[in-house]
Description:
Blueprint: H1 5-83, H2 117-121, H3 132-141, H4 157-175, E1 179-182, H5 184-188, E2 201-202, H6 203-215, E3 227-230, E4 238-244, H7 248-253, H8 259-264, E5 267-272, H9 281-285, H10 292-302, H11 305-312, H12 319-322, H13 353-358, H14 368-372, E6 377-378, E7 392-402, E8 407-415, E9 421-426, E10 433-435, H15 438-441, H16 445-448, H17 455-465, E11 471-474, H18 477-484, E12 486-487, E13 491-493, H19 494-497, H20 510-518, H21 531-546, H22 555-571, H23 574-579, H24 581-585, E14 590-595, H25 600-610, E15 621-626, H26 629-639, E16 645-651, H27 662-678, E17 685-690, E18 698-705
Parallel strand pairs: 2-5, 4-16, 4-17, 6-12, 7-11, 11-13, 14-15, 14-16
Antiparallel strand pairs: 1-3, 5-18, 7-8, 7-10, 8-9, 17-18
Helix pairs in contact: 10-11, 20-21
Subcellular location: Nucleus
Main location: nucleus
Domain Exonuclease: 391-551
Amino acid sequence: MKMMPNQQMDSQLSELSGRMAKLQLTRAERLQIRLANMKEQVSAKQQERSDKKKKKLAALANLMDLNDRDRLHEAELAKKRDSEPKSSGPETMEDDGFCTVSSKRKTKNRHTIRSTPERTTEADPDNADEPQTKRIRNDEEAGGDSIPDDTLVTLSEEQYKALSADLRRRKRRLQDFPALRLREMGQRALLETPQDARTPIFLSDIQNLLMSGMIGQKSPCRPDRWCSIEKWVSLSHSVVVILEGLSLYHYLSNESQFEASNKIFNTKLELMLPQQGEGMIIDEIAQIPLTSVQAKMLIDQHGSLESAVALNKDPTLFVRGIFPIEGRQEPGMELPQLHPDDKFPRTKLLLSALQMVDEGYPIPLQGELHSRFSSYKFTKKSYKPVTNRSPMYGVDCEMCRTVAGVNELTRISIVDEEYKTVYETLVMPDNRITDYLTQYSGITEDIMKQVTKQLKDVQKEVSALLPDDAILVGQSLNSDLNAMRMMHPYVIDTSVCFNISGVRRRKSKLKHLAMTFLKETIQENEYGHDSIEDSRATLKLVKMKLANSIEFGDEILTQHKRLQEIANACSGDSITNNLFAYSAKRDRRTAIVNVGGLQPRLKELIEKAEQVVPKDNSTAVLVHEVATTKEAVRKVTEIALENSLTIANLSIPEEDFLVDRAERSAAKIDKVIERLWNTVAHNGLFLVLMGGSTECSKGVAKIAIKRLNGTEQTSAPIGC
Length: 720
């Protein structure tokens, strides 16, 4: 039967749609297949990259393991060399307590290269005598692989993640290193600074640096005056080498012999030391709390660590080496009893030499300060040691501006402890007055018309008036002494020992101090200040403080004590643990290695620390007394990594730096320093203190922080 045209067309359309559906289905399937193939290819590439990462990581881990083994191997070899007795031959130098300096060149250290059994068995017999390292190098040049692919370890996903985390930790440790940066006062003490512009740092500056390293941010004495420590928590340990008897003069005269030391240290500073015979450097260094438990004892005794430091310091220690002071306090000799009106020694309020430099007092230090104050006179030709009963005198001066562009002395008043005026006079300046500053000085042109007394006359009269152990008291007394153009060793500054702002550098005016503590109104005269009134006010303030406590009138010390009392009441000993959290986190032991017996003063300090040591002995001060310098160096290399602070006290005989022996002795000392430097761990603080001698009381402080590669962190200035 024949189909109708319409039916035939419908049949063709349905067949065509079926074919198109089949064609579309095929394209979708092809697209899915293609996507699946692409995913497989991407997965394969990702897997390949992942495998390469794992192989690289495994190779890096193998290299790290080799480096660690090499370091351990070198350390073992060094210990063996140290323990082996040196053979005595015809060229052996006499053992005088130092390491011998050899002229032979040491062989270079090489990384250990692992050899595989396949490489050993397939080695060319013709090259049997060729060194293994050279054969491997030759094979690599020929296109061979030092480590075959089949020896690479395939890491699991867990091993890969663990190794990646370990590498990240190592990277952070390498980046998280401490740094020592010098401030302006530190820059001025650098040996590279010209001598006439150089101002030394003090031993107390070194104490502050070590105390910050031991205690951390809670340290009451920070080295911010001359330097800053970045990331101090990363300091691994500290090694201090004290070379008693080696002065700045000895070092500069033989600097070329300190070849290794000059490579180690970029920071070399001039150091002001105690007067020869006043005490050894180690005695002063040991004044810092040697253990966290000892620091706790000081807090319990004095209320705060800040008060303990203030009461235990000796402000006159360096002053005695700068001013002409005859006689000294013998060790163990008791000071006179307190003044009847005092509750603590008045000598504790004296400014130290460091404070006098910071506050701008005229002081006869060599260098920049010497040239600045070269025309100044001493208040006495010589002085006696100050005591707890030395008399105090209030001093105040008034000045007028002259054509020289400076303020010159026009009036001076001095009162004694009974508030009686013992000296009062007007002074005609050497230069013509341009501004009488009447609103401050009370001086007018009419008052000065009949004045004939000159500054040199005042200097003679003041020198004749004051006892040789007098303590001068005043508000910002540096301005008065500069106006008098005189220098005095014993001063108490009310702008320093009184502080009502809570900020050490923010000083209060005498008028506010008198109103706050004395309940007196001063400086209200419309005709200017009264120098007698001001000198009496300063003396009254100091006597009031002496009748109370070291914290009285000092908001900073009071806040520390108040916080400590609140913390102890709320948390018991837990706050102490928090205070020394950094000390408790690691073993904060201190070790002292001393050539010969300890001095009585140092023994007393250590005994006080040992009295509060717990039974577990974990915070004890370990003392090692040895006979020679060589034994001391060996002991330091053994124990340096076991202690937070290691102090090596070495004595240099004077005869070692006679003309014919100086260079040889300097070279030996340089070798000792290099050997001790090699014992310092990564991020370790290395400090060498060269002590004064009878010829020169100045010393040298060399400071370095060790990096993993054994080089020093270069110091950089911060601000001015």
